[in-house]
Design goal:
By secondary structure, the protein is α+β, with helices and mostly antiparallel strands. The longest helix is centred in the first third of the chain and has 11 residues. The N and C termini lie far apart (51 Å). The N terminus is likely disordered.
């Protein structure tokens, strides 16, 4: 039935103005959908603390081209991913934003390419007073159990959440 729908819709794509319709990604079985998450996203929570770079590499390795550290489409999604953490009440989680060491400390990028800087719609993701580039070395991002995003040093270790949404990683970073 799905195939028939895709063929039928594909034939009408030009009429409907839908030049490219992407099916949802085929996510690994270890990923789960959650209420309030992205429209085609599934997530995996990882309890072991690693560096941001190790977390991003692990996420990418799950399904290359489809998975990465979580990148938020809304504050609702930021809040929703917290429901995956059930083993502790206070925590920090790495998320998929970073910047190159030495670059503007107030401009971060999602691993999927979007810019997060003052004046962009994504700026709401930051906790008040962040990013602050404390000690001049904060190049990665995390969320706290009760707050929005903060910047942090690349050598810290934290738990993390991967997202499967079909968006490939388009940015890499020199963190230190």
């Amino acid at each position: 039935m799905r195939w028939l729908f895709a063929v039928g819709l594909g034939g009408c794509a030009n009429v409907l103005g839908l030049s490219s319709i992407e099916p949802p990604p085929e996510c690994p079985l270890t990923y789960q959908t959650i209420e309030g998450g992205g429209p085609v996203s599934s997530y995996r929570y990882f309890q072991r603390a690693v560096t941001w770079a190790e977390a991003e590499a692990d996420c990418e390795n799950d399904a290359p081209g489809d998975t990465h550290l979580v990148v938020f489409d809304s504050t609702d999604e930021l809040v929703a991913v917290r429901q995956l953490v059930t083993d502790v009440t206070s925590y920090n989680l790495f998320v998929g934003y970073a910047r190159n060491f030495g670059d503007d400390p107030f401009v971060f990028y999602a691993v999927t390419g979007e810019t997060v800087e003052s004046g962009t719609p994504e700026w709401y993701l930051w906790q008040a007073g962040e990013p602050n580039n404390f000690n001049g070395i904060e190049t990665i991002t995390f969320i706290e159990s009760v707050a929005t995003m903060r910047d942090g040093e690349p050598t810290r270790t934290e738990r993390y959440i991967c997202e499967c949404d079909g968006r490939p990683v388009t940015r890499t970073f020199q963190l230190q």
